[in-house]
Design a protein that fits this description.
Number of strands: 8
Bound molecules: pyridoxal-5'-phosphate
CATH class: Alpha Beta
CATH architecture: Alpha-Beta Barrel
CATH superfamily: Alanine racemase
Shape: globular
Helix content: 25-40%
Order of helices and strands: EHEHEHEHEHEHEHEH
Structural class: alpha/beta
């Protein structure tokens, strides 16, 4: 389980750490880097970047995070590959799939997956670990399962080509049960852990 701590203060993260949580997800590059620096003496923490990534911010992600979930272009993957410091282990990356939200600009279509995976899997400094999706919100369990099953199938197909693929990042507060039923290996939970987010301070 990834604890999604975006917009939440370090005091909330400290409480989660005290409960044994070690993996945290952040959406905004600078906010995430500030938190990583704050907790830099705690080497057991693993930081995941899960927000949209523009090319002018790739260096900060390459230099500070352990994972990036939102790869949807070769250009971004190449920059992360080039900018990952040699002193660090490879950056773990996931390809983001636009599985249901036609209005979302984030993520690739499933029909584009084989091509992008082939290009990314050979880049040094980054390691393709699997897939990520943010489905359009569905309130019904059956509807959620219908969409998430498509991710499960794509994940299994990718795994059969690349044996090191082991991560299917899906499931948030409102669809985690369906995501787990559909084979998620990493749920990203914010609200159910930290409570509702307050965006009024323009975070
Ligand atoms: C905010 C966010 C989450 C957590 O969402 P909740 O509904 O609060 O659990 C998970 N994944 C991504 C990519 C997010 O941006």
């Amino acid at each position: 389980m990834l604890a999604v701590s975006k917009t939440k203060p370090v005091s909330d993260i400290e409480k989660a750490i005290a409960c044994g949580q070690t993996e945290f997800g952040e959406n905004y590059v600078q906010e995430g880097v500030d938190k990583i620096n704050y907790f830099s003496t705690n080497s057991s923490l693993i930081w995941h970047f899960i927000g949209p990534l523009q090319s002018n911010k790739t260096r900060l992600v390459a230099e500070n995070f352990a994972w990036c979930h939102t790869i949807d272009r070769l250009k971004i993957a190449k920059r992360l590959s080039e900018q990952r410091p040699e002193s660090l282990p490879a950056l773990n990356v996931l390809i983001q799939i636009n599985i249901s939200d036609e209005n979302s600009k984030s993520g690739i279509l499933l029909s584009e997956l084989d091509g992008l995976a082939a290009q990314i899997s050979i880049l040094p400094g980054i390691k393709l670990r699997g897939l990520m999706a943010i489905p359009a919100p569905e309130s019904g369990y059956e509807q959620q399962v219908q969409v998430l099953t498509k991710m499960e199938q794509a994940f299994k197909a990718l795994q059969s080509q690349y044996p090191d693929i082991d991560t299917l990042s899906m499931g948030m507060t409102n669809d985690m049960d369906a995501a787990i039923a559909c084979g998620s290996t990493l749920v990203r939970i914010g609200t159910a852990i930290f409570g509702a987010r307050d965006y009024s301070s323009n975070k």
